[in-house]
Amino acid sequence: MTLRRARTLTGIYFTAMTVAVMWPGMVSVARIEPYVLGLPFGFFWNGAWIAVAVGVLYGLDRVERRYRTPSAPDSMGGGDGDAT
Amino acid sequence: MERWVVVTGIIAVYLVVTLAIGLLAGRRATDSVAGFVAGDRSFGLLVMYFVTGATVFSSFAFLGGPGWAYSRGAAAFYILAYGVLGMTPFYWMGPRIAHLGRRFGYVTQAQLLVGRFPSRGLSGLVAILSLVAFVPYVTIQMKGAGIVIEAVTDGHVPLWLGALVAYGIVIVYVLASGVMAVGWTNTFQGIFMVTIAWTLGLYLPYKLYGGVGPMFEKIAAVRPELLVPPGLDSAGNAWPWGSYTTFILVSAVGLMMWPHLFMKAFAAKDDDTLRRTVILFPTFQLFLIPVFLIGFSGVLFPEVPPDPDFILPFMILRTDLPALVVGLFCAGALSASMSTGDALLHAAASVVVEDGVTPFKALSDGHQQFLMRGVVLAVGGVAYWAAVGGGSSLVALLATAYGIIAQLAPPIVAALYWKRATTAGVISGLLAGWITAGLFYYEVVARPLGMHEGILGLLVHVPVLVLVSLATRPQEKAHLDRWFAS
Question: Is the reported ipTM for this assembly greater than 0.85?
Fold first, then answer.
């Protein structure tokens, strides 16, 4: 995946999440049933967006690391491999 | 042996271990302002992860979170929603901030702002308002610690003594070791509070209702309104969507603008550490789920606590848990309080001295450190007085602290990304934002749709920043080239 694409997809996910966890996105899921993992649906909905966010951020980081200048090893505090 | 003695013993062991970690940590830092404030920029991933998590989640999360779930139901979910949204932009902003810090020697947020927008007035303004937001926040943490200790020791250790001992220890290790102590004690406290939250959060619903699912089914049968977002307000009426939504927004915008969190970008060892901290943060945040489960498990509890925020200690004491568990819970609650309180005290001192004093009067490195330690004591003293004595009007200020802090976001974003922004634009924007938020907070003007005053402030702030910047002379090219060169 290209860097541009990974960033766009991440942007889309977090924009969707911003809408989904508040008004107006949350209105349609503001209900108790169905229960998922024992949690009322509205509760599960919030938790699920966070859990998936971990995966999205991890995926983004894998792509970002590939595109960063290879001359910035972790242990060297001064290495500014920031391409942005 | 009596129960309260065992509990007190466990708390004492916890406090001694914390103190030892705090004091030992300082031996790794140099005796300089950069060492005291930014830990010589040496924090690795483990420490950054727990510093960030344990600092974000305070007494408010550990005691207030269950309190909200218990009394206001689904309204508590707003706390769950904002953390990740607020943290993610730091994946890109964090390394940029750290880079500028290394290049120009910044250790505070206002230094970064003033580096881009030269103005001593701006520095002083940020320092004063940060302090206004900090003091009630520290007060709440101290009060939280005192209340928990008093409750679980059956009043044998009163609030004033519990808060004094817990925060006496915090002050000793912050004075001795600066941010290194904050980092390593938070690592210990972070592990502690997450473990306790997950254990109790799954155990209490199981013990009282036979599981998480059965618990919610019973609540749904009796009080369904608690389980449907956006939940209830503090009076028990339906909470408007406008409030729920703007609470999430203002908290997301404000989260990383808190100086005690922002400054940790200067303490990270390298950019990758910062990025991974952001990526892993949601895993820490999920600990709010068991915290809410604890609150919900109290809904059908026959007795009613004196205040919703005490639901956790209240239930712990009435469900026949072994003294060991009660003691560990108490240590978890103290961890939540102290890991935020220490970062706040440390940041308050750094901000007051670096941003409020040194721009106006040159001080040697040694004098700055001396003064910072004085400020730690002063802020701690004022907060203690407010926590133990009256000072409830001070506590009421906390409600608006996020409104104040969120106004720091537009200038920071402008400093990092918008070349056309000017000093006049940033200062007018900040003043406009703060004044607007203040007017709505004190209800000089009624809030539309129950919106949070911080968001209303931002709605005025951003256009003012943009328009005044465009109306004033752009910054010199040489200055911008130096700033944006990477």
Answer: no
